[in-house]
Amino acid sequence: MNESSFLPNLPHSPGVYLMRDATSAIIYIGKAIDLKKRVASYFLNSKRPDSKIQALVPNIRHVDYVACASEREALVLERKLIFEHQPTFNVMWKDDKSYPYVTLTIQEDFPRLFVTRIKKRDGALYFGPYPSVRGVRQLLRWAWRKRLFPLRPCDLEIVEGKPYPYEKVKS
């Protein structure tokens, strides 16, 4: 497929693109900071193209897009659309992986802060989603080292007025 048929219609803005095959079925969903540049990158001759891209590109017949106000909005919309449509070439989200969140357990006597991939209705505050779990963990480690907030990183169940059970270490 010649990308020149749909590339001129794509804006230089954040959003989500939906690649369709000859039957108009969605075969891939992606996000981009610059839709036009990202979609064009699939059609550039690179020295070592990814095997997924080699299989994907010959099947693309049409590209739809949804413009978004920000990269974060595109990230959330991409995930939602992938779960809804389950495109063939989106293997990342088929194994139920999800974006990381930072959880602040304000409902506990001694609140803690940690990274999770599951949002629960447990009274805690959830911040995110974030695109990189590595970046979130690095930021939290840095904040604890600098003692920016008096929150515990451990997952021990600590309740005010209840002594923590002593566990004898076997030697």
Summarize the main sheet.
Answer: 3 strands, antiparallel
> Helix count?
4
What structural class do you assign from the helix and strand content? alpha+beta
**Fraction in beta strands:** 15-25%
Helix/strand order, N-terminal first: EEHHEHEEEH
Uncertain spans = none
What's the count of strands? 6
Instruction: Note the gap between the termini.
Output: 68 Å
How would you describe what is shown here?
There is one protein chain. Helix content is about 25%, strand content about 20%. The chain is an alpha+beta fold and about 170 residues long. It is elongated, with a radius of gyration of 22 Å.
Q: Short summary of the structure?
A:
The chain is α+β, with helices and mostly antiparallel strands and 171 residues long. It has four helices and six strands. The strands form two sheets. It has a three-stranded antiparallel sheet with strand order 2-1-3. A three-stranded antiparallel sheet has the order 5-4-6, covered by helices on one side.
Write the topology of this structure:
Layout (H helix, E strand, L loop, with lengths): L14 E6 L5 E7 L2 H7 L9 H6 L5 E6 L3 H15 L15 E4 L8 E4 L8 E3 L5 H13 L26
